[in-house]
Amino acid sequence: MRRCRYPTGLHTMRRAITRNPVPSLLRSLMSEHLDPGYAAAAHSRRHTAGRPSVRSTAVWTALGTLSIGVVFGFAISQVADHPSDAPGVQRETVATVRAATNRADDLEAQRSALVAEVDTARETALASSDAGGSVLTDLRSLEVAAGATSASGPGITVVVSEPASPASLSDASRRTRGSAAAVIDRDLQVVVNSLWVSGAEAIAVGDVRIGPNVTIRQAGGAMLVDNRPVPSPYSISAIGSPSQLQARFSVSDAYLRMSALSQLYRVGFDVRPDNDLQLPAATARPVSAARPEGSP
User: Least CB-packed of 180, 191, 217, 238 within 10 Å?
Assistant: First the structure.
């Protein structure tokens, strides 16, 4: 009897390993890129859920179209019933500014009337005695120096104005520096200081008298003199000898500065004599501290 070449147990194990249909883990990772669970879930969803019906799709489309129509219809009705309020707001703002300006003018006129009454009462009280008359004379000289009284007489007028708008916006040769003003507060300050040095006795910019604590500042596109807006052209009036003022001012740094601005940026600049200038009084402000001139 022929004997088996391999032991029975070992032969059985070999046959079992050979007949195993399950692939190895490495072979599964290399050949199957999708987990079987995903494929099963997708297969189940396709067979259970199915495609949405044409009726439901049409219903949702109709509802969306109706919602959009309602929103646009409401917006159009609001625009028709309530037009843009921008012009109305602008008109209200302009009216408010004008009302405030008129109110300020009324208060200024009332203040001037009260100042005149105070001056009349003061002169009546002080002129009755020699000592009072001496005090009144000193007060008048101080008021003239401070610009607290109106002034009149001959002098010169310096007119500085913004460049004229070009006839054609495409004319690049006449364009100025964007939308910003070509004339700045420093220009007017230099002109005023040069007029003082040239011998001016009283100066006013526009209708604002230049006195102690009066400033010339620029806020945005507005020129403020003593916190009052002064529009272009800026008229700077100086009382004094016209010939002396013109001769000295024409050789000043301010004259050279404004002449250069006139040539480079087309800023208006004109100096002319005037035999009858009328300058208003400057605003009198309370003095909190003072000392005699020349004292330490």
Answer: 180
Residue 273 structure tokens: 């004599």
pLDDT band at residue 10, thresholds of 50, 70 and 90? very low
pLDDT tens track for 223-256: 999 888 899 999 999 999 999 999 999 999 999 9
Tokens representing residue 262 in the block: 């006139």
Instruction: Write out the two tokens for 32.
Output: 């199957």
Q: Kindly report, residue by residue over 154-213, the tens digit of the pLDDT.
A: 999 999 999 986 555 444 444 444 446 789 999 999 999 999 999 999 999 998 999 888
| Distance in angstroms (rounded) separating the CA atoms of residues 264 and 193 | 23
Answer CATH for 153-165+181-283 from 1.25.40.180, 3.30.70.1880, 1.10.10.10, 3.40.50.300: 3.30.70.1880
- In this prediction, residues 1-29 reach a mean pLDDT of 51
In sequence order, which residues have a C-beta less than 8 Å from that of residue 151 and are 6 or more positions away? Answer: 144, 201, 202, 209, 239, 277, 279
Nearest-5° angle of CA 290, CA 294, CA 296?
75
Counting every residue written for the chain, the total comes to: 296
Q: Identify residue 145 by its one-letter amino acid code.
A: A
State the pTM of this model. 0.58
DSSP string for residues in 235-291:
EEEEES-HHHHHHHHTTSHHHHHHHHHHHHH--EEEEEEEEEEEEPPPPP---S---
pLDDT of residue 13: 47
**Nearby residues of 197 by Cβ (< 8 Å), 6 or more positions away:** 248, 252
Separation CA 95–CA 128 (nearest Å): 50
Domain boundaries, the chain: 20-83, 85-146, 153-165+181-283
- Report which DSSP code applies to 172: G
**Is the dihedral angle over the CA atoms 169, 175, 179, 183 positive or is it negative?**
negative
